[in-house]
Specification:
five-stranded parallel β-sheet; four-stranded parallel β-sheet; 4 domains; Serine Threonine Protein Phosphatase 5, Tetratricopeptide repeat; mainly alpha
């Protein structure tokens, strides 16, 4: 960048001396001495000149020329305070000399007394309105006083008076650049290169502004021109490295920064930027080394400490990173980004309250810090301070309306607050701003799915997968939506992605075996295959039906299931042995999780294996339950209304005991509770109903199956018990939420999986009233038909 300071001494001193040499004869008593002093002065013998000027003052203490020439001489020897004193005394004698005021301004400027310098230059200009150099210096001082608009006006005047003044264009360009008027700055820097085509500074300035204007290739051209003119110009290589880094030409950027630091060994900012390039390249050790060098050469360079802290954070060296962030903050306590980075580190370390405190400090320094508001919202959400989190998102959006991440976070928090429309709107904004924001497409799909807008939901999942083909969670939800729509062919194929998602893999219980996975292609003739359970009890009950089909392929089938199901499933046709989950396994040739069997068998909606009951009841247990229940005088109906307490989204698919019992005409049925547990919220109502609780006796599913076999009908919500009832071939009525589990599909009242099942569906989200009315009416008809029979 070109200097904004004037080379003062040679210009003003010569002019001052020349003017004096023309006028000294008007002072006859001292004329010879002045002539002698000027002769020494002009020949460079400053000491002898000073002696002569001082001798004149002994004769005439108020000698104007001697005083102002002593001021010039003091300026030439950098005795600025003395220069001011001499100029001031000369001005007190004669205040009509513009050159003296000008020279006094330079002395004040060198003493950093900018207000006094400004007064002196203004006085000079008042006496000589077109005094170009005084106007130029006035502009320099005004910039130093941060009066940029006034400085611009002065540079305008300078250029009007002297259109070829390159330094004025350069300095005006610097101010315009500072005010982000980049196009105007570029015009001025271009004028500099036109006037001084062989000077590299103008090209460097052009390169920098073109970089800011995002004309990166043109920026490189200008840096290359500067290097061509002055191959040893470290600043040009530095600027070139900055542009190459932004163009992602990282190897080239490394070369440019290396050259800059070779030419200027203590180039701290270049080492810092070189570290950042290596960080982008993933070479954290090299990045760390260059940040170390940057700090060595610039021990007070706060940005290098912060950047080194970021690398140490990536390397999980948290204590060292904390030390660097604290150092950066101590060096530059008014820089919001350092508090923000420190807050991010504390958040990653789990120190959430401390992180929030640092975010607060960053926002105090920079009220419009949108990224900081966004990150703060994430932490507030973790603390379940949802309304504060939402407000933080709103602040981020207010200050940066195109910040896609802020809209995304607002969507997440709004969904948690059940503000569904706002969540949808927020995700919509995210993908409008950032079309490839796959997380936002995915989350939007989840909400649309929950609103039963399946076609839109499928489109969102497809878009997320298109952007990120290995997005396992999107594949999983896409599978569920396809299966819910009855597209079993594509659905079960996508369902295999469940093993690629961390949460589902943990919940489903994927096993690691040396034996290969059977996917339906390999022959199983005379082979042993292990079929093992995954996910919930209801899933095992539904998909254990495939064990018989596998056995029909000539395989010896080992079936590993949850402990409560072992005895019940031992009677499945074709199963060689049923094992409790976690037991020692015998030898086998292939393995397959139960819920991969529909895919292996290419199951579609018309080929679901559902021909009659596939589970049976132990006769001894059945007799014991028949004896316990006694003689049947009216229909026996089993009820189940809620899942186990830990089930996610239990509130959506479960009802209360009071609600389900209200469906039954009073005194018309023997109602049997099939719940293994009664939740705390239902206990008082259940106990007052007089119904017997058999949960303590239902030690496994064989007992529950035997009890169900004694019943005429089972009525309940979507839990494992209706699966068991339906697998036994018992008439089963299932009450479903608006958007049910995929296996019950949509808009049908029967199930392709269970011939004896009847489905009752919510017509509106979270509204069970129509379901209860329909069940109540059908129970009345059921009772009437039973009595007629």
């Amino acid at each position: 960048m070109m200097s904004s300071k004037l080379k003062k001494s040679s210009k003003f001193n010569k002019k001052s001396i020349d003017r004096t040499s023309k006028n000294f004869l008007s002072q006859p008593k001292t004329s010879l001495l002045i002539k002698e002093g000027l002769s020494f002065h002009q020949s460079g013998n400053l000491d002898r000149a000073r002696e002569v000027y001082l001798s004149i003052l002994k004769i005439d203490p108020d000698h104007f020329d001697a005083l102002q020439l002593l001021g010039v001489l003091a300026s030439q020897t950098n005795q600025w305070a003395n220069a001011v004193e001499f100029f001031q005394k000369a001005i007190s004698l004669q205040s009509t000399s513009a050159i003296v005021f000008f020279n006094q301004g330079i002395a004040f400027q060198e003493l950093n007394l900018l207000d006094q310098a400004l007064v002196s230059y203004c006085n000079a200009i008042q006496l000589e309105s077109n005094y170009v150099q005084a106007i130029y210096n006035k502009a320099v001082v005004l910039k130093g006083l941060d009066r940029l608009d006034d400085a611009l006006l002065c540079y305008d005047k300078v250029i009007e008076l002297k259109p070829d003044y390159a330094e004025a264009y350069s300095n005006r360009g610097n101010i315009l650049e500072h005010k982000t008027r980049y196009a105007d700055a570029l015009d001025d820097f271009s004028k500099v290169t036109e006037l001084k085509a062989e000077h590299p500074e103008g090209y460097i300035n052009r390169g920098r502004v073109l970089w800011k204007l995002k004309s990166l290739e043109q920026s490189l051209v200008n840096y290359d021109k500067a290097i061509e003119l002055e191959p040893g110009f470290a600043q040009a290589y530095f600027g070139k490295g900055v542009v190459q880094g932004e163009l992602n030409k990282l190897v080239d950027a490394v070369k440019s920064y290396d050259k800059a630091t070779y030419l200027k060994h203590d180039f701290s900012i270049a080492f810092n930027n070189l570290g950042s390039v290596f960080k982008k390249l993933g070479n954290l050790n090299q990045a760390l080394s260059n940040y170390d060098r940057s700090i060595y050469h610039g021990v007070h360079y706060a940005q290098a400490y912060s950047n080194r802290g970021l690398v140490l954070q990536k390397l999980q060296r948290f204590d060292e990173a904390i030390s660097d962030f604290i150092k950066a903050i101590s060096l530059k306590p008014d820089f919001a980004e350092f508090f923000y980075n420190y807050g991010n580190l504390l958040a990653e370390s789990g120190r959430i309250e401390e992180a929030l405190n640092e975010y607060g400090k960053a926002i105090e320094l920079r009220i419009d810090y949108a990224d900081c508001y966004t990150h703060r919202s994430i932490l507030l959400q973790k603390l379940n301070r949802l309304h504060e989190a939402l407000a933080s998102c709103e602040m981020a959006i207010e200050f940066e309306p195109t910040l896609a991440e802020a809209y995304f976070n607002r969507g997440v928090i709004s969904a948690e607050l059940k503000l569904v429309d706002q969540a949808l709107n927020s995700y919509g904004h995210s993908v409008w701003i950032k079309p490839n924001y796959f997380d936002a497409h995915y989350n939007r799909g989840v909400i649309l799915n929950n609103l039963d807008r399946l076609d839109e939901s499928l489109s969102c999942y497809e878009r997320a997968i298109e952007i990120k083909p290995d997005f396992a969670q999107a594949h999983w939800n896409y599978a569920l939506a396809l299966l819910l729509c009855g597209d079993f062919g594509r659905g079960f194929k996508e369902y295999e992605w469940r093993w690629q998602t961390k949460s589902i893999r943990a919940n489903a219980g994927q096993r690691a075996f040396s034996q290969p996975l059977w996917n339906g292609k390999e022959s199983l003739e005379h082979k042993t295959i292990l079929l093992y359970c995954e996910q919930g009890l209801g899933d095992t009950l539904q998909f254990c039906r495939y064990a018989s089909l596998v056995a029909q392929l000539g395989a010896r089938v080992l079936l590993e299931v949850q402990e409560p199901l072992v005895e019940l499933l031992e009677k499945i046709e074709g199963v060689f042995r049923v094992l409790p989950k976690g037991s020692v396994l015998p030898d086998f040739d292939y393995q397959c999780p139960l819920m991969s069997l529909p895919f292996a068998f290419n199951t579609c909606i018309n080929t679901v294996p559902s021909k009659g009951p596939y589970l049976s009841v132990d006769k001894t247990r059945l007799k014991r339950w028949e004896s316990k229940l006694g003689e049947k005088t009216r229909p026996r109906i089993g009820i189940v209304w809620s899942s186990v307490s830990s089930f996610k989204d239990d509130d959506k698919r479960s009802v209360t005991f009071k609600e389900i019992i209200s469906c039954f005409p009073v005194g018309s049925f023997d109602i049997i509770c099939l719940q293994k547990e009664v939740k705390e919220q239902d206990k008082a109502e259940f106990e007052s109903s007089g119904l017997k609780f058999y949960g303590d006796e239902l030690i496994d599913f064989s007992e529950t199956a035997a009890l169900i076999e004694c019943l005429d009908l089972v009525v309940g919500t979507c839990t494992s018990v209706p699966h068991l009832s339906a697998a036994l071939g018992k008439p089963t009525w299932i009450m479903l939420q608006k958007v049910p589990d995929w296996r019950w599909m949509r808009n049908i009242c029967h199930s392709p999986w269970y011939p004896t099942v009847r489905l009752y569906r919510q017509q509106s989200l979270a509204d069970w009233s129509e379901v209860f009315n329909e069940v109540r009416a059908d129970l009345v008809n059921y009772l009437s038909n039973w009595m007629k029979a």
